[in-house]
């Protein structure tokens, strides 16, 4: 649990109960409840019709609780012990002042419910600054509470809660459900104990034998300005209780400006925390008087001393606490915790806090390293900073995307002795210094971890820690800046992942929130991951993840909307591709770029076609694909025809995989196209194609001016440093003119403006050299990320396509042609910069 305490826990458990009036069945119910204080409660299947009681606090006189004559204060509610099937209903649009302590328990299949009647706003229960809970249940079970608004505001903090359900019975109590509530302005201690400073607190009091809960549901509520925490299902102090509460579900709640944490479960087994949204928490750390529990550190959603917890589909953002301050936290003594499908952004301490074992008095669980931790298919955006948030904090313990307090917790003998981090997407914007892997213990820490298939988009300057144990790093994408301790990864990808809206910088994009981290079909992450057993079966967007076929890198496992089917030939067969005329091609389990399969052509006049239908007339599409040849000097073409325009293709002559990018525009009435991979005639070795993609463009505008130098002049290109380049009426690829560099330290550059921040762009250009073996570079820089370029070394024109993403504060990029060294000129022609949709 969070670290700092002074003295003993406050001990405030609200255990007293005022006397109540009774209906005839009260004595039997009290006897049953007294038994529950000594032995576990056994649920029954009784179903009672029950009685509905009505409360209208705007009524001028107190009635008998019927709809015709409602009670007009909380006093009558607190003086009644309710039975299975009963309902307590408050009139909509009214306000009751005071605290509710209704009596009685329901039964299995026949709960007691507290809700509203009539039309209008939720009825308000305002505790008017009183200490304690607005609604308090002690040793009561089978309650449903919903549809109310709760307030307990005050000028100074005290132990206050919205709903508090306590169990000091010495046994198991069942079913507490709190739903569809608006709980706000609960003036608790930001640094005090959790469940007694909560919007909804479900607490087990320290007893012998132990007390636990079963079937706790907190769902569809709205919390705002609750101190300390919106939802806590915990014992009544650190080190209290050896039993585990079961079947806790906390889902679909919205939380804003919680004073400290948002959701916490302690000593739970099988808790599900699903679909919650929490923002702006962690600003308060006010502690109760000296000698009581005090802890000023907080995180968004976390657990301790718990087993088999699943945290999924949650969004936590702009947490401002300076001590921990992360969106999520796997704290002390946890077993088999899974974080999946979550979206974390702009949390000061980072995405996830990982605690090492440490010592809490009377809590032996805290000394056991948390094991079985799986972190998968999560998206972290600009964590480690509150940049862009309406409020911010100051870090006192530093921050990192993955924030370790000490070493990596490893437990020998565990089924997962090291934490597993796979298929997550971590994005850090330009201007930030957030480390990706950070530890308060330093840059080299004890332990080991597994880090696979993660997409790291690092436009910041942050670094990584190293581990003294043997960590596994494989099939990750490291794009952007590459700091000194970036992990070695033999299967890493370093190209632009082509996110749809990196950093959520484009507010007009149709891809926002976590959807911003879906990728384009030409992305290098597709099928580039390593197969991981027991991978959960689905990604962050509901796409299936195979247990046998290579997944994508990152949290997205879709195709990016690729219009081609079997684009990576991973079915192992050709269909729906068909043989092109000539010698047959085949799909083989060798020579693939990603995954296991690739298209293998014969040596000469061989290939495959795929016919696309349903295209939109007069629309520009981008075809990309990867090809290589077995024999140097031979060529393989990737192209498109039958689209209502002139057949167009790019030849690949490299023996290692090279990418081709082709723009084509359908005719005015054409809705089809034929895409192909074709090994040109006259060769002696095979050709290979893999990872083809077709995507429609929303705009085909080329943002480069004078892209083919056809004005005959350099403007608006400018000279690079060094020897001057020139526009010449020779050596052009198309048209009349081309750019000719000097023999060395020579080239030209153009700043392209009017780009979209956080946008993915394709730079495609053609280059060649006069002398074989020398190099000329096509590149892009000053766009918010790291300068990127490709070098051509052939004496005939070869295409050099580069994908790049602008930074969140960048709307321009500089594209260039540059000859670094040599004895003869280089040539460039036909520049295109086009935005991906």
From TrEMBL:
Keyword Ion transport appears in the UniProt entry: no
Domain of life of the source: Bacteria
Keyword Signal on entry: yes
Region: Disordered, residue numbers: 484-514
Residue ranges, compositional bias (Basic and acidic residues): 484-499
Entry-linked SUPFAM superfamilies: Galactose-binding domain-like, Pectin lyase-like
Coiled-coil segments: none
Segment forming the signal sequence: 1-48
Record keywords: Signal
Polar residues composition-biased segments: 503-514
Name this polypeptide is given: Right-handed parallel beta-helix repeat-containing protein
């Amino acid at each position: 649990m969070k670290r700092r305490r002074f003295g003993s826990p406050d001990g405030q458990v609200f255990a007293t109960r005022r006397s109540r009036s009774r209906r005839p069945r009260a004595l039997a119910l009290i006897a049953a409840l007294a038994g529950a204080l000594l032995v576990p409660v056994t649920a029954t299947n009784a179903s009672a019709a029950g009685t509905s009681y009505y409360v209208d606090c705007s009524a001028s006189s107190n009635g008998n609780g019927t709809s015709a004559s409602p009670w007009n204060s909380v006093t009558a509610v607190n003086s009644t012990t309710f039975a299975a099937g009963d309902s307590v209903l408050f009139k909509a649009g009214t306000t009751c002042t005071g605290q509710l302590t209704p009596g009685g328990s329901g039964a299995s299949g026949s709960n007691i419910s507290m809700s509203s009647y009539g039309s209008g706003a939720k009825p308000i229960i305002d505790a008017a600054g009183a200490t304690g809970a607005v609604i308090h249940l002690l040793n009561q079970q089978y309650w449903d509470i919903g549809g109310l608004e709760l307030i307990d505001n005050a000028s100074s903090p005290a132990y206050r809660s919205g709903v508090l359900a306590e169990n000091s019975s010495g046994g198991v109590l069942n079913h507490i459900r709190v739903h569809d509530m608006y709980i706000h302005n609960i003036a608790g201690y930001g640094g005090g104990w959790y469940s007694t400073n909560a919007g909804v607190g479900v607490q087990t009091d320290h007893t012998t034998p132990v007390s636990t809960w079963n079937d706790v549901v907190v769902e569809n509520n709205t919390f705002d300005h609750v101190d300390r925490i919106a939802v806590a299902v915990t014992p009544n102090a650190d080190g209290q209780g050896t039993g585990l509460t079961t079947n806790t579900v906390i889902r679909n709640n919205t939380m804003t400006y919680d004073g400290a944490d948002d959701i916490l479960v302690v000593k739970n087994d099988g808790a599900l925390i699903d679909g919650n949204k929490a923002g702006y928490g962690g600003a308060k750390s006010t502690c109760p008087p000296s000698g009581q529990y005090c802890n000023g550190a907080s995180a968004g959603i976390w657990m301790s001393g718990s087993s088999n917890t699943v945290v999924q589909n949650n969004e936590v953002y702009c947490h401002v606490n300076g001590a921990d301050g992360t969106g999520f936290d796997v704290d002390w003594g946890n077993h088999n915790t899974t974080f999946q499908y979550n979206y974390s952004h702009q949390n000061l301490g980072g995405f996830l806090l990982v605690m090492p074992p440490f010592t809490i008095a009377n809590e032996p669980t805290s000394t056991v390293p948390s094991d079985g931790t799986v972190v998968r298919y999560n998206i972290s955006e600009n964590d480690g900073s509150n940049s862009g948030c309406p409020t911010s904090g100051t870090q006192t313990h530093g921050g990192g995307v993955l924030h370790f307090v000490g070493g990596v917790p490893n437990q020998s003998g565990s089924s997962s002795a090291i934490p597993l981090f796979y298929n997550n997407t971590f994005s850090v914007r330009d201007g930030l210094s957030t480390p990706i892997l950070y530890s308060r213990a330093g840059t080299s820490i004890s332990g080991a971890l597994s880090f696979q298939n993660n997409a790291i988009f690092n436009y910041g300057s942050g670094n990584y820690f190293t581990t003294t144990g043997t960590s596994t790093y494989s099939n990750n994408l490291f794009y952007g800046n590459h700091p000194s301790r970036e992990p070695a990864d033999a299967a890493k990808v370093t190209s632009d992942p082509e996110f749809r809206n990196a950093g959520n910088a484009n507010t007009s994009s149709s891809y926002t929130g976590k959807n911003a981290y879906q990728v384009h079909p030409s992305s290098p992450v597709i099928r580039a991951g390593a197969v991981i057993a027991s991978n959960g079966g689905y990604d962050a967007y509901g796409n299936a993840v195979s247990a046998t076929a290579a997944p994508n890198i990152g949290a997205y496992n879709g195709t990016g909307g690729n219009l081609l089917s079997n684009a990576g030939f991973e079915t192992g067969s050709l269909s729906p591709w068909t043989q092109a005329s000539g010698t047959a091609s085949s799909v083989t389990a060798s020579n693939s770029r990603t995954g296991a399969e690739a298209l293998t052509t014969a040596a000469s006049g061989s290939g495959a076609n795929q016919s696309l239908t349903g295209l939109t007339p007069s629309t520009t599409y981008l075809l990309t694909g990867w090809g290589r040849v077995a024999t140097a000097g031979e060529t393989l073409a990737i192209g498109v025809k039958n689209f209502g325009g002139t057949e167009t293709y790019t030849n690949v002559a490299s023996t290692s995989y090279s990418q081709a990018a082709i723009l084509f525009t359908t005719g005015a009435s054409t809705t089809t196209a034929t895409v192909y991979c074709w090994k040109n005639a006259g060769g002696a070795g095979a050709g290979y194609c893999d990872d083809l993609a077709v995507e429609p463009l929303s705009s085909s505008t080329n943002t480069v001016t004078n892209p083919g130098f056809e004005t005959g002049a350099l403007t608006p290109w400018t000279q690079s440093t060094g020897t001057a380049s020139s526009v010449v009426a020779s050596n052009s690829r198309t048209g009349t003119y081309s750019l000719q560099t000097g023999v060395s330290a020579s080239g030209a550059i153009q700043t392209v403006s009017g780009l979209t921040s956080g946008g993915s762009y394709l730079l495609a250009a053609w280059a060649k050299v006069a002398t074989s073996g020398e190099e000329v570079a096509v590149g892009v820089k000053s766009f918010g990320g790291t300068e990127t370029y490709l070098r051509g070394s052939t004496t005939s024109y070869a295409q050099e396509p580069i994908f790049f993403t602008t930074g969140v504060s960048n709307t321009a990029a500089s594209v260039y042609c540059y000859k670094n060294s040599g004895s003869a000129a280089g040539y460039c022609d036909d520049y295109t910069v086009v935005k991906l949709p």
